[in-house]
Design goal:
The strands form five sheets. Strands 6-5-4-1-7 form a five-stranded mixed beta sheet. The protein is globular, with a radius of gyration of 24 Å. It is 38% helix and 12% strand. By secondary structure, the chain is α+β, with helices and mostly antiparallel strands. The chain has two domains: 166 residues, Creatine Amidinohydrolase, Chain A, domain 1 (3-Layer(aba) Sandwich); 293 residues, Creatine Amidinohydrolase (Alpha-Beta Complex). The relative contact order is 0.11. The two termini are 39 Å apart. It binds glycine and manganese (II) ion (2 copies). The site of one manganese (II) ion has 4 residues, from loops.
C-alpha cells in the first residue's frame, strides 16, 4: 500500500476556496478558475518516474497529492469540481491498492467529482457562454500542452494568457501563513535540525562532500520526507547553487551547506550554515563570517510588519559593506558603496524569499507578483535586481534571511578588467581572497505582530557554537 499524503482538516481547504472566491469577487472577476495538477514525469522511460511533487497552489486549495488531477471553481455558482479518474487493475497490480482520488476528495471538502475526460466539454461550454476561464501560468511543458488542448493554443504564451487576478488572489492568500502552516514549516525544520546534527558529526578533512550529503539526506528519507530542493554541500561555496558534491574536503576549506526538507503536508524548510572543515575558523574566515552573521542578525532584528523587505536587504548590504571596509576590501563610504552597487561583487543575490509549500514560495506565479507590488519596482542594478522580495512585510509572512559574502573569480576578473567601482573596491586586496570560497547563513523567519521569530530549533550559528559543535562530535 502506498503511503498517502496527509491533509489538513477538510474545512481548511473549504475555507481557502471560499476565501479565493471572495477575493476574486472583490477584484470584480467572474467566470471559472481552472487548476491543473501536475503529472508524473518520466526519468528515462514512462514507468520510471521522478519523485512526484504536487503543484503548490493545487495542494493549497485542493489538498490532494495524486498526479493527473484537475479542478474548477465556478465564481458565479460557487460549484467546486475535482476531475479525476478511476484506477486501472494494472495500477493496482503494480502499485498496490490505492484509494481513489474521488474517495479522498471528501477529505478536502470536495463533493463533486467527474472523470477527467469531461473537463474539455465543461470548459468548452464555459467558453461558448463567453465566460472567462482563469488559469495560472504553467511551468512544465506538459501543463502547457494540456492548456493548449483544453482551451486552444494561440500566438500568445500562457504566461501572457494567465489571469493576473487569479495570480494576485492566490498570492494574497498563500502569503499569509496560518498557525497550522507555520507549525508545518517548523516540522520541516525539525528535519533540518537532524540534517545539520548529522552533518556536523561527519565533516572532517579527507572526506568527500557527498558523504555529508548522504548523511543529511538519510536523515530526510528515514522520516519519510524528501528534500525541498537539491542539497548544496560544497567547499566551492562561491558557486551559489553548486549541486556538485565530488570534492574532497580539506583542512582550511569552508563548507557551505544549504539544504531543506518537506513536512508531511509538503511545507519546506531552507537552512544554510557555513563551517570550517577543520572545525576551527582561520582568522580571515572568522573575520568574514562575523560580517555575514552581523548582516543576518541586523536583518532579522529589523523584520516587522510594514517594513519594506528591500530596506532590510539594503541594511544587510550596508553591514556587509562596512565590514568589508574594515577588512580592507572596500574603500570610501560604505553606504555610498551600497548605493552604487559595489558591494554586489561580494553579495550578488537577494536577502531572501518567501517560503511555504514551495521553497521559493509561489515563484512559478511570477516573482514580480509575489515580491513586488504597486509600491515597489524591481531595480536594474546588478545584485539588487536578483532580490525576489522587496515589498512591505505583513504579519504571518514566512521568509528566509540569507545574506552571504562570496569571492567569485570570474566576476572579480570581469569587474577588475573594467575597473568597475574602483573607487570603492581594493582589487589588490581582493586578489588575496581568491580561493576563499563563500559564506552564507540562512534561517527561516515568521513576521509577527511585534517583529519576527526565527523558526525551528536553533542550529549552531555563532563561531563559538559551530566550533563547539565540532568538539562535541
Ligand atoms: N536553497 C536555495 C535558496 O536558499 O534560495
Ligand atoms: Mn537555501
Ligand atoms: Mn533560501
Amino acid at each position: 500500500m502506498i503511503e498517502q499524503q496527509n491533509l489538513f482538516p477538510a474545512e481548511t481547504y473549504t475555507e481557502r476556496r471560499q476565501a479565493l472566491i471572495s477575493t476574486m469577487n472583490s477584484f470584480g472577476a467572474t467566470g471559472v478558475l481552472l487548476f491543473i495538477g501536475l503529472e508524473e514525469v518520466p526519468m528515462n522511460y514512462c514507468g520510471n518516474t521522478y519523485s512526484f511533487h504536487q503543484d503548490g497552489s493545487f495542494s493549497y486549495f485542493w489538498g490532494l497529492g495524486e498526479s493527473s488531477l484537475a479542478a474548477v471553481i465556478d465564481l458565479d455558482s460557487h460549484d467546486e469540481i475535482l476531475f479525476c479518474d478511476e484506477r486501472s487493475i494494472d495500477d493496482e497490480i503494480w502499485m498496490g491498492p490505492l484509494p481513489l482520488p474521488a474517495d479522498r476528495a471528501g477529505l478536502a471538502g470536495v463533493h463533486q467529482t467527474h472523470p477527467t475526460k469531461e473537463l474539455a466539454a465543461y470548459l468548452q461550454s464555459a467558453c461558448n457562454a463567453r465566460r472567462h476561464v482563469h488559469v495560472l501560468p504553467p511551468y512544465r511543458a506538459r501543463t502547457t500542452q494540456t492548456l493548449d488542448r483544453l482551451l486552444g493554443a494561440d500566438t500568445r504564451s500562457w504566461k501572457a494568457r494567465a489571469s493576473a487576478d487569479f495570480i494576485r488572489a492566490v498570492v494574497k492568500l498563500r502569503s499569509i501563513k496560518s498557525s497550522a502552516e507555520i507549525a508545518e514549516i517548523e516540522k520541516a525544520l525539525d528535519i533540518s535540525h537532524a540534517m545539520y546534527t548529522r552533518a556536523f558529526g561527519r565533516i572532517v578533512p579527507g572526506r568527500f562532500e557527498r558523504e555529508i550529503v548522504g548523511a543529511m539526506e538519510g536523515a530526510v528519507l528515514e522520516v519519510g520526507s524528501r528534500t525541498s530542493f537539491p542539497t548544496i554541500c560544497s567547499v566551492r561555496g562561491e558557486i551559489l547553487h553548486n549541486h556538485n558534491h565530488a570534492n574532497i574536503m580539506r583542512k582550511g576549506d569552508l563548507l557551505v551547506l544549504d539544504s531543506g526538507a518537506e513536512s508531511s503536508l509538503g511545507y519546506s524548510s531552507d537552512i544554510t550554515r557555513t563551517v570550517p572543515v577543520s572545525g576551527k575558523f582561520t582568522p580571515a574566515q572568522r573575520e568574514i563570517y562575523e560580517i555575514v552573521l552581523a548582516a543576518q542578525t541586523t536583518a532579522i532584528k529589523m523584520i516587522r510588519p510594514g517594513i519594506f523587505f528591500r530596506d532590510v536587504h539594503i541594511a544587510a548590504a550596508r553591514v556587509i559593506a562596512s565590514g568589508l571596509k574594515q577588512a580592507g576590501l572596500l574603500k570610501g563610504n560604505p553606504d555610498d558603496a551600497v548605493e552604487a552597487g559595489a558591494h554586489a561583487l561580494f553579495f550578488p543575490h537577494g536577502l531572501g524569499h518567501m517560503i511555504g509549500l514551495d521553497v521559493h514560495d509561489m515563484e512559478s506565479l511570477g516573482e514580480d507578483f509575489v515580491g513586488y507590488d504597486e509600491e515597489t519596482t524591481r531595480s536594474e542594478q546588478f545584485g539588487l535586481a536578483y532580490l525576489r522580495l522587496a515589498r512591505r512585510l505583513q504579519t504571518d509572512f514566512t521568509v528566509t534571511v540569507e545574506p552571504g559574502i562570496y569571492f567569485i573569480p570570474a566576476l572579480i576578473d570581469i569587474w577588475r578588467n573594467e575597473a568597475r567601482h574602483r573607487d570603492f573596491i581594493d582589487y589588490d586586496r581582493v586578489a588575496a581572497f581568491r580561493g576563499f570560497g563563500g559564506i552564507r547563513i540562512e534561517d527561516d523567519v515568521v513576521v509577527t505582530s511585534e517583529g519576527s521569530r526565527v523558526l525551528g530549533k536553533p542550529i549552531p550559528k555563532t563561531v563559538a557554537e559551530i566550533e563547539a559543535s565540532f568538539l562535541n562530535t
